[in-house]
Amino acid sequence: MPDDNIIEVKGLSHSYGDFEAVRHITFSVRRGEIFSFLGPNGAGKSTAINILITLLKIQKGDIIISGYELSKEPQGVRESIGIVFQEITLDRDMTVEETLQFHGRLYSMKTEEIKSRTDELLELVELNDKRDKYTKELSGGMKRRLEIARGLMTRPEVLFLDEPTIGLDPQTRRKTWEYLRNVNREGTTIFLTTHYMDEADILSDRISIIDHGKIIITGTPQELKNNLGNDLIYLQTSDIKNSERILTGFPGVKDIREKNKGIVLTTDRDGTRILPEVVKTLEDNGILIEAVNLKKPSMDNVFMHYTGRELRDGTDSNNRREQQ
C-alpha cells in the first residue's frame, strides 16, 4: 500500500441474496484527507462502510486500513478507527462526561488518559458546559457532536461517519462541518457517506460518486465540476425537441440534456459569449425563448451528468434492501 494511502480497497463486492449492493468497487483514501461517498439511499454507501468498519464480512475483495489487512487482522482495523453511526446510539441516562469516560474504559484506556482526553474533546466540540447534562437533555446537534467526540476518544487514525448531518437543520449542519474540519486539522483522516450535495462539495477533499453499487467517478469537487465545462445554459423554449436537434453540435456546446421542461447546455468556453449566438440561432429557426439562465456547474449538475438522474430521485427498490 502506498505510504500516502491509509485505506486501499480493491474489487469489493457484496450481495444480499440475489441483490448485489456493492459491485466490484476499487478506491483509495489518502492519509489526512476528508473523503466522501456521495450517492442516494440504496446506492451501496452504507454496505461499503459497514464492511470497512468490520460490521459486515468481506464476501469478495481486498481491504487494507492503517496497514492492517481487514480479512486477516480485523482487530487491528477496529483499534485504528473511530465510528459515528447514522442513528443516534447514546445512552440516554448517561451524562456527557460519563459517555466519553465509559467509552475510554471500554477500550482499556488509562484513567489519567481518559480524564485528559475527555477534557480535550469536550473543548473541541464545545460541550464543556454540558458535561454534567444527561444525553437525553441535549439537542440533536449536541448529540451529534458528542458522538463525534466519542468516536475520537481513542485517537483513531480514521474516523468513519455514515450520513453525519442527516436530520439536522442547516445551521447545525454547517456547525458540524466546522467541528469535522477541526478534527481533520488535528490529523485524523475522515471518511463519510452523504447524500447532501453541498456537504460533499464544501467538506470533501475528494469525492466518489456511487450509484447502484458502483463508483461512477472520483475526484476533487473542483475537478468534477470542471469536467463538465465552463458554464451551463438552461433554456425553456416553445419547442424543446427541435431546440435540442438544432443545437446538437453547436460550436462551444459539449453536451445537451433535458431537465425540468427545458434543456441544459454544457459549454467548453465562456457561456456569456455563446448564449447570444444560441438565442439568435433558435429565433432564426422560429423557436421562442421562454426562459434562460446561465450559471457555473454545481455538484447537482455533476451527479446528473454522470448518473443521468437527480440525486433526490434515488428512492428505488434498493432503499428497501439497504437502509441508509
Draw up the topology in text.
Layout: E1 5-16, E2 19-30, E3 34-38, H1 45-52, E4 60-65, E5 68-69, H2 74-80, E6 81-84, H3 96-106, H4 111-124, H5 140-152, E7 158-162, H6 170-185, E8 189-194, H7 197-203, E9 206-211, E10 214-219, H8 221-226, E11 232-237, H9 240-247, E12 253-259, E13 262-267, H10 271-284, E14 289-295, H11 299-307, H12 318-321
Parallel strand pairs: 3-8, 3-9, 6-7, 7-8
Antiparallel strand pairs: 1-2, 1-4, 4-5, 9-10, 11-13, 11-14, 12-13
Helix pairs in contact: 3-4, 4-5, 5-6
Write a compact overview of the structure shown.
This protein has 324 residues and is of the alpha/beta class. It has helices at residues 45-52, 74-80, 96-106, 111-124, 140-152, 170-185, 197-203, 221-226, 240-247, 271-284, 299-307, 318-321, and strands at 5-16, 19-30, 34-38, 60-65, 68-69, 81-84, 158-162, 189-194, 206-211, 214-219, 232-237, 253-259, 262-267, 289-295.
Structure description:
The structure is a single chain. The chain is α/β, with parallel strands linked by helices and 324 residues long. The protein is built from twelve helices and 14 strands. The chain has helices at 45-52, 74-80, 96-106, 111-124, 140-152, 170-185, 197-203, 221-226, 240-247, 271-284, 299-307, 318-321, and strands spanning 5-16, 19-30, 34-38, 60-65, 68-69, 81-84, 158-162, 189-194, 206-211, 214-219, 232-237, 253-259, 262-267, 289-295. The strands form three sheets. Strands 6-7-8-3-9-10 form a six-stranded mixed beta sheet, sandwiched between helices. Strands 2-1-4-5 form a four-stranded antiparallel beta sheet, covered by helices on one side. A four-stranded antiparallel beta sheet has the order 12-13-11-14, with helices on one face. A hairpin with a 2-residue loop joins strand 4 (60-65) and strand 5 (68-69). Helix 3 (96-106) crosses helix 4 and helix 5 (140-152) packs parallel to helix 6. It starts with a strand and ends with a helix.
